[in-house]
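User:
Can I borrow your eye for a moment on a structure tokenisation matter? Would you put together a sequence-and-structure record for a protein of your own picking? Please set it down just below, with no commentary around it:
AI:
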Amino acid sequence: MIATILAALAAMGPVFQQQPTQLTAKLVTSGLLTPLYVTAPPLDTQRLFVLEQLPARVRIVKNGVLLPTPFLGIKPICQTGGEQGLLGMAFHPNYASNGYFYLAYTDLAGATVVARYRRSAADPDLADPTSGKILLTAPQPFPNHNGGMLEFGADGYLYIGLGDGGSGNDPQNNAQNLGNYLGKILRIDVNVPDTATPPYAIPPGNPFVGVVGAKPEIWSYGLRNPWRFDIDRQTGDMWIADVGQDWVEEVNFEPFGVAGGRNYGWRCLEGNVSTGLSGCSAVPPTPPVYQYLHSQLPGCAIIGGHVYRGLNIPDLRGTYFFSEWCQATVFSFRYESGAVQQFQNRTLEIVPPGSGVYAIASFGEDGIGELYYCVWGLGQIYKIEEAVPQLQGVTYFGSGTPGCSGTMEIYANSSPVILNPIFELRVRNAPPLSLGLMLFTDVGDTAGYDPLGLGLTFHLDIGTSTWITAADQFSGPGGASILPMPIGNLPALVGKTYYAQSFWDWSATGICTLPGPTNLSSSTAVKLEILN
């Protein structure tokens, strides 16, 4: 009966009109020293690369384990302390074939350096320390406001964020001066022969090519300290979180395909507030799409994040995240139809209890767009996940059989209620890009047992069930799967209780091999009580 119900109602399609998805933070690793950024090569589902600012090295978290040997260390050539050190990293879009990645760091003279390195030919978890090649150097008059964000755009070019050179009020007016790199976003083409001088090209669409006295690498200007910007991996839009000085923190937005050359106003404007300082460009400033006063949130320095484009939390896609350094707070919003919408304070959801004043230093993404953040003072990396909701009519039980990324979890997005067309069962931590099976029965066994003798934990008593049915599932690259289960207008189901559990085979993924006679793993289980 249940199979017929599900088949008929699945054809209707779910309607996604839900309350804001509740989030949580999962500790990925600890024991790091001043972690400042987390990233990964495109589509890499096994590894996270973490920048440790002051030791000036790159660490790898592989399949949830922090590898003891650093991927790369550059301490002998790197000035550390305060806002200096190893600050940014980006992988070439063709990293899988060419092995190139790019670092931004502070050299021993205090200048910001952008350099290219290559991974080791012998070990993909190590870089070749002799492969470093400096692409660009930007002298810094003061030790703060270094910027250091690196990211490849949808156009294939490398974007570089640099602060105004430091001190207060940008005393040299660098941000408005097109004759230097400071207070700017730069754009360069790194796909040039190794013999090229300089070792990059100027993209033909850069706005100041041919302008006398202007650096042709400049894409936009008038920024104080664009510590972290994001290029939306789906749309190509750019989000620039610019750290303010006395009054205002701001988020600037550049739609993909719009010409560069935007002036964001600093040092003449802080957000939309006039500073009264001179030296302003004649180009009208582009206002931020969002800003807040230091007395408003409150705060002192914005930490820009990313637009979520991962696969594990579909309801969250298109949501921009940022945090506030001085108050250890996290916020999110969507930018639609030219306006900020669905603004939410996420602090209680994803800032772990006990972290105290240790704020988020940076966000980052893995190879498929899942979102992480670094707790600088505690040496920790957290992953933002959907919280298993506490729902009426849904009970979670049983630990399941561990897989290669931990025990799979099955959970519901809402309670199973008559006339609720959006009820879904979701799985996370399943094998990526694999076919699984979800079983449904009318008898549950909270103790779990192994009826097949394969070391596989069941929480469904298939031996005594009056019926059993199954539904195929397919997981995405992040190991998440969603099975729409609209309940529909079937009053006969009210008061019924069903059980569900998910099973997957890891043998075809190439990620790992499970011990025992089978590569099968099982999820936790859910008890579903159909409500009115």
